């Protein structure tokens, strides 16, 4: 479960969107859109837009005349999003969440889904979101819950660990590293926000089949390249084991598994 895939596909952004988009990110894109108050929005900013899963829902939710700026630090992801959403009125920008190129109090809505886990200076990034948001403006963000609460990712990594040398790099746990609601609330309040709502929201990861889910999870997994270096034959073994366990626990076709994320809302 990652914000960007380092797997072995030639077109990483397209592969990421094809497999991880519907499995993990689409359910929370809809959850976030439901929480947006469109009243009074003239300018909206999305950070960590990725391949545009949330971007499309924001565009549909806010007023037609409102400006939507969709940004990411990954140019390849933005290019994939632009290709998919070229028919919509969206301004695309390459932006670092730790240094936003916008004036104070200039944005009415700030959204960042599954991006802050990968930011080095989290206090600065949250402070920047607060700085550019106008007084009374809304801030919505998501992070993943603990790995154990996201079953398909937990199962896949548990099986892969049988083939990997321990200990695993710390980076393997980055995606699920921001799951403490109290710590997150402190970050948000310390950034200058006056009102916060931090909640864990459960959803379902749905795949047409356990086989397709296993394929996407293994070949798009953070461990893919490392295992391919050691012994490429292991990849097919891991796929088979993952498919078997996912099918037994969550169904073969479709596969429906529980996932969990933190959704934060704050107002300046």
Low-confidence stretches: 1-10
Distance between the termini: 31 Å
Within the largest sheet, what's the order of strands? 3-2-1-4-5-7-6
Radius of gyration: 19 Å
Give the mean pLDDT: 93
Main sheet?
7 strands, mixed
As a percent range, the share of helical residues equals 40-55%
Our count of helices gives 9
Could you characterize the architecture of this molecule?
- The two termini are 31 Å apart.
- This protein has nine helices and seven strands.
- Helices cover 41% and strands 22% of the residues.
- It has a seven-stranded mixed beta sheet.
Based on the model shown, name its key terms.
9 helices, 22% strand, disordered N terminus, 7-stranded mixed sheet, 268 residues, alpha/beta, globular
List the helices and strands and how they pair.
Blueprint: H1 12-35, E1 43-47, H2 53-61, E2 67-72, H3 75-84, E3 91-94, E4 107-113, H4 122-132, E5 133-144, H5 151-161, H6 181-190, E6 195-207, H7 210-219, H8 224-230, H9 233-250, E7 255-267
Parallel strand pairs: 1-2, 1-4, 2-3, 4-5
Antiparallel strand pairs: 5-7, 6-7
Helix pairs in contact: 1-2, 1-3, 1-7, 5-7, 5-9, 7-9
Briefly, what is this?
With 268 residues, the chain is an alpha/beta fold. It is built from nine helices and seven strands, in the order αβαβαββαβααβαααβ.
């Amino acid at each position: 479960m990652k914000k960007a895939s380092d797997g072995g596909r030639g077109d990483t952004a397209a592969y990421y969107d094809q497999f991880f988009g519907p499995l993990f990110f689409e359910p929370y894109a809809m959850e976030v859109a439901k929480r947006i108050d469109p009243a009074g929005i003239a300018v909206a900013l999305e950070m960590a837009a990725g391949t545009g899963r949330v971007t499309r829902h924001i565009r549909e939710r806010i007023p037609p005349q409102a400006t939507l700026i969709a940004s990411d630090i990954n140019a390849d992801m933005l290019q994939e999003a632009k290709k998919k959403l070229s028919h919509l009125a969206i301004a695309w920008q390459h932006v670092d969440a730790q240094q936003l190129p916008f004036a104070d109090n200039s944005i009415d809505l700030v959204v960042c889904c599954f991006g802050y886990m990968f930011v080095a200076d989290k206090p600065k990034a949250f402070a920047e979101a607060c700085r550019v948001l106008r007084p009374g403006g809304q801030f919505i963000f998501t992070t993943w819950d603990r790995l154990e609460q996201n079953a398909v990712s937990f199962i896949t990594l548990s099986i892969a660990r049988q083939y990997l040398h321990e200990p695993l790099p710390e980076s393997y746990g980055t995606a699920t590293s921001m799951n403490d609601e109290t710590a997150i609330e402190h970050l948000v309040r310390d950034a200058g926000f006056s009102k916060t709502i931090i909640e864990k929201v459960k959803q379902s990861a749905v795949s047409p089949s356990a086989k397709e889910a296993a394929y996407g999870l293994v070949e798009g997994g953070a461990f893919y390249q490392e295992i391919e270096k050691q012994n490429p034959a292991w990849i097919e073994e891991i796929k088979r084991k993952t498919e078997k366990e996912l099918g037994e626990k969550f169904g073969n076709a479709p596969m429906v598994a529980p996932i969990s994320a933190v959704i934060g809302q704050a107002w300046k």
